[in-house]
Amino acid sequence: MLNLMKENKTYYQASRHPELIELSKAPFLTVSDKGAPGSPTHMSAIESIHTVAYALKAIYIELGKDFAVPVLEGLWWVEEERPALEVPTEEWYWKLIIRVPEFVLNEHLEQVKQNIQRNNPELSHIQMIDIELIEEGLSVQMLHIGPYEKEPETVQQIEAFMNKHNLVQNGLHHEIYLSDFQTTPPDKIQTILRYPVKNK
């Protein structure tokens, strides 16, 4: 069975200190919308993308190409000039992503979307799911351990590292959810925080 997380350890590991890494292009399932973290819209999108990912896995098991479904990730942004933390959370935009093998075909994605929508009409984000190639390139990242509410403390360390090395943000705030937030105690949740960067 193909395990993308084991084969791409650089992508799915980070230290407790800011570090600079280089990331190549890879395919991801994606779904985008707007709303507060944990809101019904956000949770519906999470359920939808996971449902599609595991339905694709089932197809490829039958084709002799089984793969482990990697962890969920999120890209976050606001469409205002104010800092994100000053914007009401219901105005936050996000793109949920899950990495998939390069052999996953769009025709199989469309097949599972139609099947899922037929049997689960309440999943309103199914038809919004696509496969996208994402390439962040040069990035700064750090492992955050603790509740999401304390992420700004880790972000401050990342920003200090960027300033020290004359780097500026060149992409979206990226979170990789190594822990299941529904079953993990808040103080033990592990999240990789990552920012694409470029030289000033």
Automatic annotation (TrEMBL):
Residues 68-198 form the GyrI-like small molecule binding domain. This is GyrI-like small molecule binding domain-containing protein. It holds the Pfam family GyrI-like. InterPro entries: GyrI-like, Reg_factor_effector_dom_sf. It comes from Seinonella peptonophila.
